Task: structure prediction
Amino acid sequence: MTDLDIHPGSGGGLDVVVVGLLLVVVVAASVALERSGTDIGAAWNLSAVVAGAVLLAVVTSIPNAVVAIYLARKGRGAATLSTTTNSNNVNVVVGLLIPAAFLGLGTVTSSALLTAWW
Result:
């Protein structure tokens, strides 16, 4: 084990460029996935709740996958694990718990419950 394994060097200008390009890729992929998922859901007569819940899960995983690949290639295993694990927790807190705390749950239907559990 070398010192580089524990203390990787700081990022440089190339890292900034790569992150900027990856941001564009993530946004474009998310938009394309949302549009194609909506079209497929309509063509297959899927419930909007089912299509939305599945699509939301996939779209929110794209940034995690890109960041995990980038950090893993840089040799930052601990950061990779931390980022991907904490991101899922943040998605649940920001996407479900905070709105529920301020807006209330309203009428809890079976489809809303299914979406929340998924």
Observations:
- The helical segments are 3-6, 13-43, 48-73, 77-103, 110-117.
- Residues 25 and 95 are 23 Å apart (CA to CA).
- The chain has one domain: 11-117.
